[in-house]
Design a protein that fits this description.
Length: about 120
């Protein structure tokens, strides 16, 4: 999901993706990119230059999956807040703001009310 989420806005080169994902191994990133390509969610373009220039772009099918990815991202953010509230902790990156004890979501219709990351 993090790969598709990045590709939704622009084309990325392999090295850019690797740096943006933090601590991901070359093997794991390559495996994930190959699976996403095989599933038709992204397009891999190899330019015949030295050094090799490879770009990844989201496909139409991948673009259609973005709303589902967004729902899962928002659910995850709500879960982190909920889990932190249950344990009396604040999730990282919330600048000292209080964590609400509001349940994650009562239904999928409430997904739109969950704040974005």
């Amino acid at each position: 999901m993090p790969i598709l989420w990045r590709l939704k806005d622009r084309t990325w080169r392999y090295g850019e993706l690797k740096r943006s994902l933090g601590r991901v191994s070359h093997k794991m990133l390559t495996q994930q990119l190959r699976e996403l390509e095989a599933d038709g969610l992204l397009t891999r373009t190899v330019h015949a230059v030295v050094p090799p220039h490879v770009e990844y772009t989201i496909s139409l099918l991948g673009r259609q999956a973005i709303p589902a990815v967004d729902v899962l991202r928002r659910w995850g953010a709500a879960y982190v807040r909920h889990a932190g509230a249950k344990q009396g902790k604040r999730p990282p990156g919330h600048g000292g703001r209080a964590v609400s004890g509001v349940p994650i979501m009562e239904s999928w219709r409430q997904c739109g009310r969950v704040s974005r990351w």
